[in-house]
Structures are given as structure tokens and as C-alpha cells.
Write a structure and sequence with these properties.
Strand content: 5-15%
Shape: globular
Protein name: UDP-glucose 4-epimerase
Helix content: 40-55%
InterPro entries: Epimerase_deHydtase, Lipid_A_modif_metabolic_enz, NAD(P)-bd_dom_sf
Order of helices and strands: EHEEHEHEEHEHEHHHHH
Number of strands: 8
CATH architecture of the domain at 5-165: 3-Layer(aba) Sandwich
Oligomer: single chain
Domain NAD-dependent epimerase/dehydratase: 7-223
CATH superfamily of the domain at 5-165: NAD(P)-binding Rossmann-like Domain
Distance between the termini: 51 Å
Amino acid sequence: MTERCCLVTGASGFVGAALVERLGSMGRKVCASARAGAVKPSGAFVPGDLDGAFDWSGALQGVDSVVHCAARVHVLHERDADPLSAFRAVNVDGTLNLARQAAVAGIRRFVFISSVKVLGEGAELPYDADTRPAPLDAYALSKLEAEQGLRELIRGSGMELVIIRPPLVYGPGVKANFLRLMHWLHRGIPLPLGGIDNRRSFVALDNLIDLILLCLDHPAAAAQTFLVSDGDDLSTTEWLRRLGVALGRPARLLPIPASWLERGAAWLGKDDVARRLCGSLQVDIDKTRELLGWTPPVAVDEALRSTAVAFLEEHGR
């Protein structure tokens, strides 16, 4: 019997590339799509615009399951004149176009990588399986609309849907704000973040990949939505201290009260930055643990060490 493969979209991205590598190391047949101009895994094909018009029929031949990682991602400095339309074109129309063709092709399971941001930007209590969505920006709204469209689309199709909502993902090769923080810590730059008593959930790349792999085949995962984290929520201050240790550069953190930072950020029009640094955003992964029997295999300090090692190898010690 010919082995059927797993199609991974977004294979040039942070999560997609790691997933393709892990599947390959397990001896599992992988088909991968990646954006034009990006470094692509061996054998990856490049789709056209990831919108509602691309023909996936050729790519779906011989495919058993799909992990849809590709997305127009959230950015702090949006340049598009109509960001919601831009997000919808890729994250909603593109997702539903792929899923619709996957259902017609008889794909067994469709795993959609969504975002915890569909639930909001944090609250007094941890988000859990029963939290009502409350997206606050165009990216989050587009992810929620994709989730809703997928649930409607699969009714009566025979294709199983799994949705995973990760918080911030970190690991070797991480970019954006996490990488910027590592640069600052590595240079010994004092940061005014030593007095923050919040709690944030993060997920190591290895832990997210482990859950995705489990969701590809676990019978109980079908028709479910899962939250994921490392299971060890930390304050911003403690997070930076541990990251500094991993880098071999003890973090130089000034004990500035969080309320001062929030007022200063508001004055500069940077409320979103203050919210991410000073606010809490926790997820309760009890449902994921209990329904799937899943436990994060990699501890926070171990994941930070591997992240730091990769950073130091690339940027020097």
C-alpha cells in the first residue's frame, strides 16, 4: 500500500519548517508548500497567492492529512491601507479555499494553526476551553473567522478538523520581538522590566510541534479546539532572568513599577507594547492534557537553553 503524505503549508515559516523537519526525521512522508522567495525544505513547491483562487488539486494528490500553518501574520507596524481585508484574503479566504478542496479530495484530517489572540489580549483569569472569543485586532478577527468558516465547511464532509490556538512561540531561530530582547540581554543593556508581577503563557517550538504531531492521528482530537503552552507561566521579569541565564548574560533589570511603564507607554501611544510586557495572558491547558493525555515534553529552561544556543551560534558569543 502506498504511504499517504502529510501536506504542511507555510513550510518556510518558523513553525512549518520545524514541523516538516520533525516529520521527515520520523520517516513520515511530507509534502510542503512555501512562499516564493523563501528558503524552502527539499521538495517543497511554491503556491501562487495564498488566497481563495489557488488550485490545490495537484498538491493534494496522495495526501492523507493537512497542517495549515501558512498565514498572513500579525505585525506591530501595519502598512496596508485596509489591513482587515488583507488578513481576510489570506487567513480566511485562503484557508477555506484549501479546506474546501481538501474535503473534496477526501483528506482525512485538517489541522489548523490558529492563535490564542482570537480569545483576546489577556484577562484576569486564564483562558480555557470555554472562554468566549474576543478578538481585538484584524489579525485575530481573521483567525476567528477562519475557525468559524472551517467548522461550517466540514459539516457532512467526512473530513476531521482540529484547531490549535498557540500563544507566543519561541525556540531556535525565533524572530521579531523575542529576538530583539535576546540581542539586548546579550549586549548587557539595562531594561526597565525588573518590577513586573504578571503571568504570561508561552509555548516552546518543540512543545507545539509535539502537540501538532499528536493531533494528526489521535482519535480524540477530531472536532476539537486546543490551547497549548509550556504549562509554566512566568512573569516578564522572571522570563527575562531565565533567558539571561540561558544566554550566559545575567539580565540587568531595573525595578521600575509596571504602572510607570504603562503610563509612559500610553503617553507615547504604545499601549499595545505595555500590554504585552506588563499584562497577563495565561492559558489553561487542562483540556489538552486530559483529552489527549498530553504533557509538554520540554521544560521552559531546557527550551530557553536551546533557543540561546542557536542565537549564540548565529550572532556570536
